[in-house]
Amino acid sequence: MAALPKPVPGLVIRYSYLWHREHVQGRDEGQKDRPCAIIAALRTDENGDIRILALPITHVPPDDRSLAVEIPAKVKERLRLDDARSWVVLSEWNDFIWPGPDLRRLPGASDASVAYGMLPPGLFSTIRERFLSIVKARDVRRVRRT
Asked: What is the pTM of this model?
């Protein structure tokens, strides 16, 4: 069996994302497996655990365009995502210890295939900078997962 990919910023993974609104309602499982972009991978302790911050990718257009970044069609095609318009949401994230029970394999792939691929460096830089400015303004919601 192939090994899981290294969890690096910019990697798009398939994950059972738990929206903040679902968390507030008392849910502890996401309703849908979806692509998510790793925005940060932080070593948490001397045991080598890595805490992942994952931003959701959705087809729902954002009410506030400043809180999301649209993924260009060419990038979606390279990642083998569908051809509907999609946005990376910047105003909330899930964090979890890698690999975590909520990673999901890609449809039709082996258990180790949880990643679609990497975002292009320029797009990831835009996402990271906008995310950091939103975090600095404290206009974000974190959902800590197992």
From this structure: 0.94
